[in-house]
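Model: You mentioned two targets. I'll fold them one after the other.
Researcher: Yes, keep them separate.
Model: Target one:
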Amino acid sequence: MKIVVVQEGEYGKRLVDYLEKTMPEDSRLVLFTGEAGLKDWKETADYYLLAEELSEEFLSEEKKIHPGKIMILGDDRKEGVFCRSDTPDKLVRLLTEQKEENVQEEAYLTLLFSPVYIENLSEIAFRFMKQKGLYLGMEDLGSGDGADMGDLSYYIHLREEEILERLSAMVRKTEEGYLLDSPDMYFYLRELTMEDYQWFFHKLRDERLYPEVVVGAGSGFLKKPEMLALFDRIILVDSVASAAQHRFCKRLMKLVSDGYYAQGIEIRTIDKTNY
């Protein structure tokens, strides 16, 4: 569990010190003394404990960015506020009980696959996300603006242990979530082996930096059909207006549903004309 505390003064230091000693061993605590620190932070957390004294504008904005994860630290006992005069063990119970109610041990990976290139694949992806997750562009063509999956692929192939820190430094934060664009051409993606992708996806699942990840991909991404088994869910972008695209999606869906290449994976189609 990752917890961010935004609280100035001695109370913030003592609270973080207590939580580090009493929360489960896999917990990570991050302390910021003001708004600027969190605004510059590129990662995500399970819970955000924010001082009530922070500006209303900042608090309202953070609630939009991290819905359902905000806890206010204040001086009064009222709904939605943890009173700073209460014992910190009460806060520990609140955090651990909420974790048990919302158990998700690993990040959830979805493959959003389009057999033909479409420009708004990331927009479609964010509509499926239940929370502010990560979109990884592995489409056949990219925008060519800023860092992209081609840059990250270099470090994936090296099996760099700090790969998620590299990823965090490259992603763009949008209103919908986090995004790393597709490379200029899919050739960069083809340089990675299936084992490289397995290693990288394992890191994403295990660390849960982004609880939900959607990989938007075209045909250039799939070196082998066995790569479909790397995901928890597959969504095929279909088009009844295109006979070839519709036929391809039907055949691939049947192969996966019948247990070829991937077993026990949810697979369905959507029609791109509805998006």
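Model: Target two:
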Amino acid sequence: MEENDMDAVRKAAEHIQIPFNRYEIFNRLSQLSQPKAKMKQALKERMKLLAAAYVSLATFIDDDDVEFIFENKNSQRAKDVAAKVCEDLDIAQEEMRNFKLMD
């Protein structure tokens, strides 16, 4: 990523106008730094990266569990932890599929 997410949000916010009436909803294309199609594609790519990062959080588990798994790969506890991580991954992926960006 070129810049962190907060900087990207601040930069985008500079161009957002909150309409107070129906005649103030329009923004000028000249205010965009890139063509509208490129901006849409860049936003979609950033959202995909953020969704992937959200899903990957499911793979982070307690340090002690990681050590136990490496030392006891065939134990039932290791299998249970792995199953839980897989379940958490499935849940996170489903959350991202169902995530509504706008109310």
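Researcher: Noted. Anything on target two?
Model: The radius of gyration is 21 Å.
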